[in-house]
Amino acid sequence: MSVGQDLLDVPFPKMVLSLAQAISKGQMAMDLASLNTLKILAKTKFDWIPEVTEVLQRVKIDTVGGVDVSGVDVQLLAPRTGVQLTMIQAGILPTFYQFTESIIEFGASVEVSADFLFASGTFSSHVNYKTANKYSYSVDGSSLLRTTLKPTPPPTRLVPKFITVNTLVTPPTVTTSD
């Protein structure tokens, strides 16, 4: 059996179907991994500090040559108490991927020298290193499967809509994420 014949014996529809099934299984595994990441991000909480206040005050440092030199004193006021947020509320979303391109490529080449053309009758023989060099016979084969993955944003239905009611101002304000 030659390399070229091996490549020709592979049924093309079966190869395409196998690639499609592999892509489908891979896509499902990646989607499940992204959904599991979404669940973890929705459950992981941290203390979010909404604001930090610094007070800058001019202070006299010294007099140099009769000239007052001043500086700045930075006073950090205690930050407001942290608010519990999930990673999703903080805007960290999982990455989803999709297959955007798939290529199947295969080829074969058989080269025979002129010595074979002048032989009479039909014969068959397996080709080894010695006969390949003696009769300038060579067989090449190759195959390639290539796919391209691209990150995509999570499906919009998976990202919750946030409604913020700010009661710290009068009148209270309501904002929504879209």
Explain what this protein looks like in three dimensions.
With 178 residues, this protein is α+β, with helices and mostly antiparallel strands. It folds into 2 domains: 3-44 and 87-176, no CATH class; 45-84, no CATH class. It has 4 helices and 8 strands; from the N terminus they run H-H-E-E-E-E-E-H-H-E-E-E. The protein has a two-stranded antiparallel sheet with strand order 1-4. Strands 2-3 form a two-stranded antiparallel sheet. Strands 5-6 form a two-stranded antiparallel sheet. The chain is elongated and about 100 Å long. The protein starts with a helix and ends with a strand.
Name its key features.
38% strand; 178 residues; alpha+beta; 2 domains
Question: What does this entry show, briefly?
Answer:
Helices cover 28% and strands 38% of the residues. With 178 residues, it is α+β, with helices and mostly antiparallel strands. The protein has a two-stranded antiparallel ribbon. Strands 2-3 form a two-stranded antiparallel ribbon.
Please outline the helices and strands.
Elements (H helix, E strand, L loop, with lengths): L2 H7 L2 H32 L1 E4 L5 E11 L2 E10 L6 E4 L9 E16 L2 H4 L11 H6 L3 E15 L10 E4 L6 E4 L2
Antiparallel strand pairs: 1-4, 2-3, 5-6, 7-8
